[in-house]
């Protein structure tokens, strides 16, 4: 018997099985939960280069080309915690590159399609409309994009005033090229959103046209609640774990 | 399979394990609320659940306990309760003495060591799954586990500091 086997004797839940009453209560609880708001219907994640289209509806997430090796490292190395806001006109080449990708269907872009655009070092992050779908793109050079479908444009419902929701967060890559993103909708009166990571880094998110978004180097977007989201609305400031956000 | 069917299957497959995971760490009268919160979160994020959902649920449970347990936030590890006090052990037997030594050694460890050991010995997770629960890399978890096992062995047998640890299968 090794040391770990010996330890099993100390297990406070050894042999513990839920009673019939506990099963019944818990089953009744999940039925009540399911009677409430529906779960998010799309698993949205960045996909790597070469992924075959897995379209199962307009919002399938397919990224071709994704950030190729070396490009993610370049984006990470030049990253800044505070973004520089960009207009649709300023990022038109990147918007066109995003529009030409498969995610959300190939379209051609104009400046008005860009809902949110920000620059952090070498990387441009876009949230834009593509044929009825809202997509997110991260580009380092105009032809090096990672993109993700977010939501059907007609499904966008603004959160209540002063609040935000979380549409998705995720991470991609590993090592020096690993990065995370977070995206959601903002209600009226939200003036700023910050993401505080477990290591103390505070990332200033971009807020524009009903959306908030940020990306940063590191794995937190793929983890459970290792960051907090702080929402500023007038003189009111609230902080939330991702799992607490609607 | 509809979302509802998938969620019922998830509940059926994981409820007992999740309840045990939580009851190892908080008093039983607090466990039900925490388990309910975890399933509520899982329903809202059903599309994001990985295929191996159990470590994901445990990670949410661990975070939920951290938020709900007063004073926990200042500590890094979620402590594990000690069980088996009501098990019948004949007084004075060799087994009883070994059990007392084991309990004493367990109590001498840090909460962080106990948490790492419990994830494998009590919760039955692999290193990969335990790393998911603690939000660390598998290699980091393996190192923490090896160190915790060394300290456990040292506490059990202070006279033999370089005890060979048997390889773990997990």
Oligomer: heterodimer
Helix content of chain A: 10-25%
Structural class of chain A: alpha+beta
CATH superfamily of the largest domain in chain B: RNA polymerase sigma factor, region 2, helix turn helix motif
Summarize the structure in words:
The complex is a heterodimer of chains A (246) and B (170). Chain A has 246 residues and is α+β, with helices and mostly antiparallel strands. Chain A has one domain (71-244). Helix content of chain A is 15%, strand content 31%. Chain A contains four helices and 13 strands. In chain A, the strands form three sheets. A five-stranded antiparallel β-sheet of chain A has the order 1-2-3-4-5, covered by helices on one side. In chain A, strands 6-7-11-10 form a four-stranded antiparallel β-sheet, with no helix packed on it. Chain A is globular. Chain B is mainly α. Chain B has two domains: 1-74, Rna Polymerase Sigma Factor, Chain: A (Orthogonal Bundle), CATH 1.10.1740.10; 91-161, Winged helix-like DNA-binding domain superfamily/Winged helix DNA-binding domain (Arc Repressor Mutant, subunit A). Chain B starts with a helix and ends in a 14-residue tail after the last helix. The interface between A and B is large, with 41 and 51 residues.
Would you spell out the secondary-structure blueprint of this structure?
The complex is a heterodimer of chains A (246) and B (170).
Chain A (H helix, E strand, L loop, with lengths): L2 H5 L12 H15 L36 H7 L6 E2 L6 H9 L13 E7 L2 E8 L2 E7 L5 E8 L15 E5 L6 E7 L4 E8 L4 E3 L1 E3 L2 E7 L9 E7 L2 E5 L6
Antiparallel strand pairs in A: 1-2, 2-3, 3-4, 4-5, 6-7, 7-11, 8-9, 8-12, 10-11, 12-13
Chain B lengths: L2 H21 L4 H17 L8 H16 L25 H15 L2 H11 L5 H8 L3 H19 L14
GO biological process, one term (chain B): DNA-templated transcription initiation
Protein name (chain B): RNA polymerase sigma-70 factor (ECF subfamily)
GO molecular function, one term (chain B): sigma factor activity
């Amino acid at each position: 018997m090794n040391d770990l086997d010996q330890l099993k004797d100390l297990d406070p839940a050894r042999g513990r099985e839920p009673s019939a009453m506990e099963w019944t209560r818990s089953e009744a609880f999940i039925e009540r939960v399911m009677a409430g708001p529906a779960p998010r219907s799309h698993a949205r994640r960045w996909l790597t280069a070469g992924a075959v289209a897995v379209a199962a509806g307009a919002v399938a997430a397919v990224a071709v080309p994704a950030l190729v090796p070396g490009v993610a490292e370049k984006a990470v190395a030049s990253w800044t915690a505070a973004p520089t806001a960009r207009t649709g006109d300023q990022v038109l080449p990147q918007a066109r590159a995003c529009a030409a990708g498969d995610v959300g269907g190939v379209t051609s872009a104009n400046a008005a399609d860009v809902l949110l655009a920000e620059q952090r070092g070498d990387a441009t992050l876009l949230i834009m409309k593509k044929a009825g779908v809202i997509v997110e793109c991260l580009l380092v050079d105009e032809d090096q994009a990672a993109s993700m479908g977010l939501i059907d444009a007609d499904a966008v419902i603004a959160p209540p005033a002063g609040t935000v929701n979380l549409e998705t967060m995720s991470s991609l890559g590993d090592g020096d090229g690993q990065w995370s993103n977070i995206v959601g909708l903002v209600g009226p009166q939200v003036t700023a959103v910050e993401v505080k990571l477990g290591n103390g880094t505070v990332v200033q998110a971009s807020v524009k046209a009903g959306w908030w978004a940020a990306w940063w180097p590191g794995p937190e977007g793929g983890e459970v609640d290792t960051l907090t989201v702080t929402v500023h609305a007038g003189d009111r400031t609230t902080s939330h774990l991702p799992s607490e956000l609607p | 399979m509809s979302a509802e069917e998938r969620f019922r299957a998830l509940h059926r497959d994981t409820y007992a394990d999740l309840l045990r995971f939580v009851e190892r760490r908080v008093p039983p009268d607090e466990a039900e609320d925490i388990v309910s919160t975890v399933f509520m979160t899982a329903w809202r994020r059903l599309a994001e659940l990985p295929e191996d959902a159990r470590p994901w649920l445990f990670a949410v449970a661990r975070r939920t306990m951290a938020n709900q347990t007063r004073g926990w936030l200042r500590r890094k590890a979620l402590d594990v309760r000690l069980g088996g006090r009501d098990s019948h052990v004949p007084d004075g037997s060799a087994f009883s003495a070994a059990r007392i030594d084991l309990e004493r050694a367990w109590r001498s460890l840090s909460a962080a060591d106990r948490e790492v050991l419990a994830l494998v010995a009590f919760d039955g997770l692999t290193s990969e799954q335990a790393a998911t629960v603690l939000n660390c890399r598998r290699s980091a978890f393996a190192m923490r586990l090896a160190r915790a096992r060394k300290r456990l062995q040292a506490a059990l047998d202070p006279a033999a500091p370089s005890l060979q640890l048997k390889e773990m299968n997990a």
